[in-house]
Amino acid sequence: MVDCPCRLSVKNPCLPLDVCLIVGEPFVSFVIEHKTKGARRISKKEALQILKEEDERGHIHTAWFKSAMGNRFYAICNCCSCCCAGMKAFKDYDIPMLASSGYVAKIDEGVCLKCGLCLEICPFGAIEMDGSKVAINYDKCMGCGVCVTKCRSGAILLSRDSLKGEPLSIQELTKV
Question: Which of 6, 28, 134, 152 is 20 to 30 A (C-alpha) from 119?
């Protein structure tokens, strides 16, 4: 686990800072050996707790790959739209730093309370209200699921959409 470099780079970051998870070797050892800010080894239980708490905060989990890392998966970051450099590059400058989960949100109008909470919490601004109708902007939706976990009425679900890409498999990602 390391302190989030994105959160460290902004004036008033979201807290806590220690939310980025480095995964697998040799990446973990490299980060620990080079005393990366806030780096420490954590247990699987601690990692799962970080993921749970960040989900409760409405932050999204992103898997990171880099050519310098042998095109291997090396990190799970817990991103907020106000601090995350990847999200800002994607949303503000159309730089493809993020890929869709392979899912898209769908709203059951019969169950929706039209409370507007989903509009406020969607990190990609993909939910819109036109009069009394709530709709998902397909092009903006990344299938992160924040709206699903925060919807009080259970009116939003994620639906597999092959046009949005293939979902990642953690089992495949962690094979060496």
Answer: 6
